[in-house]
Amino acid sequence: MSGFAPWQQRVFDGALASLAEGRLGHALLFSGAAKMGKQAVANRLAQRLLCPTPGADGLACGRCRGCQLFAAGTHPDFKFTSYLPNDKGDKLRSELIVDQMRELGHWFSMTPQMGAAQVAMITPAHAMNINASNALLKTLEEPSRDRYLLLVTDRPGRLPATIRSRCQRLEFRPPGKAEAMDWLRAQGHGEASLAPALHAARGHPGLASDWLETGGLELRRQVLADLNALSQSRQSPVELAQRWLGDEHTALRLRFAAELALDAAAERLGAGDASGLTAAGDFTALCAWFDGINRARDQLSVPALRHDLALAGLLLEWRSMSKATAIQGARR
User: Residue 297: which residues within 8 A CB-CB, separation 6 or more?
Assistant: First the structure.
């Protein structure tokens, strides 16, 4: 048993088929939403590429010295590249830098120590800054036999087109509802929670499972209650902003706020189910608010910004829009 979810297995089987037919690219781009299992599939493929004695099923044997070294994280012909500590050493950098890509290019120029392949993995690939991307491009332009570069990303659109065009793309797509529900059941989640979690996750079973395990679905219900309280002036925008920023769940709260507003707008247009949130009738203003919430999410990692003031302003806008909707509804 591979232990893969069905959608992961399909991608992995496709990669193995390409390898068997001699069609597997030198550079592979593993793309798809977070928590779809891209890293797990990339790791399994890397192990297979480095195994000199694969089984009849095309999988890594799991017994040779190469497989043992890979499992221990010490294979000399595998290079993992991700965030490095900052200059102070107290936290990780927010991007992948040019020196890492230059080191990777030099590493690829060396002879494999175990005589087979070399495999390098970059994750998250979209975190490369422009100089790092340009340095990596030089490596991509000079592919060599049995040298493989695996790029893993949740945001392929942030990679330069010159890099994307040189990669064979392995896409992880959400499965159909029935398959997703079956998989969630197999993870041991209660039947009553499956459909609400999958709906909240926009059909993404990995995300739905994560929220069910970590209380994310309950957090979403709280965000809904907070926005409704804000609309009814039972909650201060400033106090709510401070509370939302008070722990490590701020980004998830903002995501839920944006998506609940989107659901409410769809409901108002007759294109969605009841969301429990009343959307403003001014869809231009609602779209601008939606964009503002998503920008606030993206900017949370910038310490110099006054996130409390920016968020309080957005919440005040929501209250104003909601009150205007309520007044218009009363007049009708």
Answer: 251, 254, 255, 258
The span from the CA of 160 to the CA of 30, in Å, is: 15
- What would you report as the CA-atom Rg of the chain, rounded to the nearest whole angstrom? 24
Give the chain's length: 332
Name the pairing type of β-strands 27-32 and 168-172: parallel
Q: What is the pTM of this model?
A: 0.86
Per-residue pLDDT of 145-193, as tens digits, reads: 899 999 999 999 999 999 999 999 999 999 999 999 999 999 999 999 9
* Chain centroid offset of residue 250 CA: 17
CA distance 30 to 10: 13
pLDDT digits (tens, 9 = 90+) for 15-50: 999 999 999 999 999 999 999 999 999 999 999 999
Q: 169-181: per-residue pLDDT in tens? A: 999 999 999 999 9
Q: Note the helical H segments in the chain.
A: 6-20, 38-50, 65-72, 98-108, 130-140, 161-164, 177-186, 191-200, 205-214, 216-231, 237-244, 250-268, 283-298, 307-331
The encoded tokens of residue 141 equal: 């332009």
Query: Which residues are within 8 A (CB) of 190 and not within 5 positions of it... i.e. 6 or more apart?
Result: none
pLDDT at 116: 81
Q: How far apart, in whole angstroms, are the C-alpha atoms of residue 310 and residue 319?
A: 15
Own/partner long-range contacts of 91-100 (Cβ < 8 Å, ≥24 apart): 94/127, 94/301, 95/127, 95/128, 95/129, 95/132, 96/122, 96/125, 96/127, 96/128, 96/129, 96/132, 97/129, 97/131, 97/132, 98/129, 98/131, 98/132, 98/134, 98/135, 100/132
- Which residues lie below 8 Å from residue 30, measured CB to CB, with a gap of 6+? 11, 38, 39, 41, 42, 150, 151, 152, 153, 170, 172
